[in-house]
UniProtKB/TrEMBL annotation:
Cofactor: Zn(2+)
Residues binding Zn(2+): 91, 94, 131, 134
Family the UniProt entry places it in: Belongs to the Fur family.
Coiled coil: none
GO molecular function: DNA-binding transcription factor activity; transcription cis-regulatory region binding; zinc ion binding
GO BP annotations listed: negative regulation of DNA-templated transcription; regulation of secondary metabolite biosynthetic process
Any single Pfam family the record assigns to this protein: FUR
Cofactor note: Binds 1 zinc ion per subunit.
Keyword match Transmembrane: no
The protein, known as: Transcriptional repressor
Keyword Cytoplasm: no
Key words of the record: DNA-binding, Metal-binding, Repressor, Transcription, Transcription regulation, Zinc
InterPro entries found in the cross-reference section: FUR, Fur_C, WH-like_DNA-bd_sf, WH_DNA-bd_sf
Amino acid sequence: MKAQYQTRQRSELLDFLKEHTGVHFTAAEIQKRLKDTGTSIGTATIYRQLEKLIDEGSVLKYVNGPGTSACFEYLPPEKQEVPEEEFHCKCARCGRLLHIECKELVEIGNHLLEHHHFLMDPRRTVFYGLCDDCQKKTNM
């Protein structure tokens, strides 16, 4: 892989993502958070750098559905080489995206492969429903 030229914007974006490992952000949220700390990076630059980081394997991209902004998450080096067995649950009401590590869901993936010859990608698997907070609001 060709070495990346390290611009100030790329370094600041990568530093921000590393500081928030495990958190999902849209490009607009990243831009706002950086601006709040005194760093100004244009939207096109953020998207361009995120795409490069995705290609390098250090950022994951989640598309939450039609009409919604994609989310991005930094992936530390120790997790870049090993396939994650982490799934995601997205609240259909508030849009919250939750990380789920669950051996039972891994078994579903094994079943799909063994019985249906389908290899599921846990990093890109999203279950839709209602988060705990939205369930509580519904029951009030």
